[in-house]
Amino acid sequence: MSKKLGETSKLTAAIAPGVFAAGDLTPIVIDRLGFEDAIVHVRVGAATGTPTAQSVALKLQTGDAAAGSDMADVPGDAVPALTADNLEAELNLDLAGYKRYLQVIPTVAFTAGTTPKIPLAVTVALGAPRVIPA
Predict the structure, then answer these.
(1) Whether this model's pTM surpasses 0.85
(2) Sequence-ordered list of residues with C-beta below 8 angstroms from that of 46, at least 6 positions apart, any chain
(3) Cα dihedral angle (120, 124, 125, 126), rounded to 10 degrees?
(4) pLDDT of residue 76
(5) Which residues are CB-neighbours of 118 under 8 A, at least 6 positions away?
(6) Chain-centre distance of CA 129, in angstroms?
(7) 60-69 confidence digits (pLDDT tens)
């Protein structure tokens, strides 16, 4: 059995798993130095608070500052909104043109309900390293 996948990829949280109310969440800045590709994976659980509609949308940002202070949206790279319970989606990325740091910005929105919240986690798998092992 080959164990080389770990030598050519790196998994990192973009949004740590949690239960979130409406609004933008604080993202984690990811250092992609040495990696040329990525997969963004998002998973939502069942919303609480009986909303009549829900949406979790993701956009990507990139910048040069490790603290994320200069992040700018990446046009065209976004995960389609998840609008029901217990869904997941992913987006394959070619990181050419991205700066050193990236972050995934989720926007959680609800219609109606009593203080609705939704379980959410976002993971980024970095791949195509310039140096092996990664």
Answers:
(1) yes
(2) 85, 86, 118, 119
(3) 180
(4) 85
(5) 19, 20, 44, 45, 46, 47, 48, 54, 56, 85, 108, 110
(6) 20
(7) 999 999 999 9
